[in-house]
Design a protein that fits this description.
This is Acyl-ACP thioesterase. It holds the Pfam family Acyl-ACP_TE. This protein has 2 domains: 117 residues, Thiol Ester Dehydrase, Chain A (Roll); 88 residues, Hotdog Thioesterase (Thiol Ester Dehydrase, Chain A, Roll). It is 18% helix and 43% strand. It contains 4 helices and 11 strands. Helix 1 runs antiparallel to helix 4. The longest helix has 15 residues.
Length: 229
């Protein structure tokens, strides 16, 4: 079993949001030939959703050609792990793990990974991270901003696309150079955000960690950023 790879010609310096979009597009193309799985999902009103991301970046990703690679690495009872790398000339410039779950869209609940999915994806047992830590909200308040959900931020499942959370986070750092020095990013999606809505983003500085929460009436996501010196 080989890792799926896709060539990208990058015309600008990549943001974190751009990087996640590349990884998700690579994943979609890797799954494009899973016709049986697609039919099963359609017949049973199921949808993939990302539960967690963890990303590590090794310096700025500038304008040039890259190879994005992805592979499924692990199944547990209700989730599946998918790994990613962005490479140039055989060197890894960024790596990531996304944890996916499957949602019954009619009953709005998670389901166990069906056997048809396990049979359709050949695992490569190579993990980018030994573990993905739980989000911890502590520290001194570094930044607080409020945002209003825009219609264009809503995905096909009727809730805010997961990269919009990153867009809000980047807005808190846009007036300084920190986001360009991003080394580690992680996020756990806890509850969907719908339109219309007002979103509160709080970032807390705790040593080298910039912990953050995104909430409406409830916590919708929590995560962490670590930056290079």
């Amino acid at each position: 079993m080989q890792k799926y790879k896709k060539h990208y010609k990058i015309e600008k310096n990549l943001s974190l949001r751009d990087l996640l979009e590349i990884f998700m597009q690579t994943s979609l193309e890797d799954s494009a030939d899973k016709i049986i799985v697609k039919k099963y999902f359609k017949d049973n009103n199921l949808s993939w959703m990302i539960y967690k991301w963890k990303v590590q970046i090794y310096g700025n990703i500038t304008k040039t050609d890259y190879i994005s690679k992805t592979w499924p690495s692990y199944f547990d009872k209700i989730s599946t792990y998918r790994e990613f790398t962005l490479e140039r000339d055989g060197h890894i410039l960024a790596k990531a793990t996304a944890i996916y779950v499957i949602v019954d869209m009619k009953n709005k609940k998670l389901i166990e990974i069906p056997q048809i999915v396990k049979d359709s994806y050949q695992l490569i047992q190579e993990r980018n991270f030994e573990k993905i830590e739980k989000a911890s909200i502590k520290g001194d308040i570094y930044c607080e901003k409020n945002f209003y959900v825009e219609r264009e931020q809503i995905d096909l499942n009727g809730h805010v696309h997961n990269t919009s959370y990153v867009f809000w986070l980047e807005k808190c750092f846009e007036n300084n150079s920190l986001i360009k020095k991003l080394k580690v990013f992680s996020i756990t999606y806890m509850k969907e955000i719908h339109y219309p809505n007002k979103v509160n983003l709080l970032i807390y500085k705790d040593g080298e960690n910039y912990n953050f929460s995104i909430k409406t009436n409830d916590f919708n996501a929590k995560g962490k950023c670590i930056f290079n010196d």
